[in-house]
Write a structure and sequence with these properties.
single chain; about 280 residues; 9 helices; alpha/beta; 5 strands; five-stranded mixed sheet
Length: about 280
Amino acid sequence: MGIRRSSFYTWKKNLSCPSERTQNLVNNILLFQEYHLKYPSHGYRWLNAKIRLDTGLTLSDPYAHKCCKTAGIKSEAKHYKYKKSGEPAKIFPNLLMSELRIDGPLQCIVSDMTAFRVKGVYYELTLYMDLWNNEIVSHCLSSKRGDRMTYISGLEDLIALKQQHPEYQMILHSDQGSVYASKKFNELLPMYNITRSMSRAGTPTDNAAMESINGWIKAELFMDLHVTGSGPVEKEIDDYILFFNEQRPAYSLGYLTPHQYKQQYARNPKGGPACL
């Protein structure tokens, strides 16, 4: 075969007694494969952050990319590409387009609704997320199409949270949906020092953080957590929200979880990082 005897026996020795470096690489590849099977919607950076969070194993992103490339691991999620912006909001101004600095909790809450099906049953999930640390502070699920109460119930929970912190001046941002623009939805907000903000018509990029989370939620629910409807869907959604807030690393937070980011801020409120 044209191979020198010394090269053959060196290869044979390495095959039977691999070096520590090679053994570590193989073990790490197997670890990434294990996490990819659990969370197929994510790429190598998120998987690396999740492994670091769960096991304490610290690997560089280039090394994680090498492991995933060797194993053929890629994110299986596909996300929506946004279209160009539309007309300005006619009901409330878009405060997110101003030079808004978010440097603490509950300063800006973004909201949206996402829909999905489980076993042929249609569900609508309304979310309220703190833009400062991406924490979902309120949510409501309904199996009724166009159910206005998912928005109202979620808003009531948000107001209850706001009452615990009257010192904060909160901005609530949403799209121009009929419920968000309704009198019933907006009439109580000034009483609790909550200022309204709205995206431009047909411009999901004005609420990009919330739109991104909506896409990830559906990918993770069905690809990673395998929601099947075998149990109560409401319980599965509650479990996911807990996972999202306390166990899911977020790129925008330096791969901390929302809960970890809040704890870090509590220890150093003046020097803590801000999302915007």
